[in-house]
Design a protein that fits this description.
Signal recognition particle alu RNA binding heterodimer, srp9/1, 2 domains, 2,3-Dihydroxybiphenyl 1,2-Dioxygenase, domain 1, 5 helices, alpha/beta
Length: 159
């Protein structure tokens, strides 16, 4: 059986095209794809946007205008692995705009989608062999909303 990978479908209430445009404006290697419209068969108004295909950072998505029945929650989130503090700041600022800063590198964007803006250095700290260093970095992380790499590294080093 051949497969073309998989596509993440995000359910919106009338804001699918706006969301797709928003995400492609933030992520590199992004593009808008095909737009499907409702027909007279429904369930939406004929001619209204039903689906918008897009790629964000090379990942395939389809935004669906499905209605108000379902909303996003933290049970599913997208992790952005950042090389440095500039990347953390960029993604944090762009994605939290109109949304909500939560805790420990998590935020909800203006559409309610949850994101984790994570420096790759933190992943190394959390998976390192020295549990005492990991504990110190974790304690500091738990006090943060947007993650501060320098503060995490100081805690990890015991400074």
């Amino acid at each position: 059986m051949a497969s073309d990978g998989f596509t993440t479908c995000l359910w919106f209430d009338g804001r699918a095209e706006e969301a797709a445009q928003h995400y492609i404006s933030i992520f590199k290697n992004s593009q808008l794809g095909r737009i499907g419209r409702y027909t007279e068969a429904g369930p939406g108004p004929a001619g209204a946007v039903m689906t918008v295909e897009f790629e964000a950072n090379g990942q395939k998505f389809v935004a669906l205008n499905g209605g108000p029945e379902f909303t996003f929650n933290e049970a599913v989130s997208f992790q952005i692995h950042c090389a440095d503090q500039d990347e953390v700041d960029y993604y944090w600022n762009r994605l939290s705009e109109g949304g909500e800063e939560v805790a420990c590198g998590w935020l909800r964007d203006t559409f309610g989608v949850s994101w984790q803006v994570v420096p790759s250095a933190l992943i190394d700290m959390m998976t390192g062999p020295d549990q005492e260093k990991t504990k110190r970095a974790t304690e500091v992380m738990l006090t943060m909303k947007k993650l501060d790499i320098a503060a995490l590294q100081k805690a990890y080093a015991g400074e």
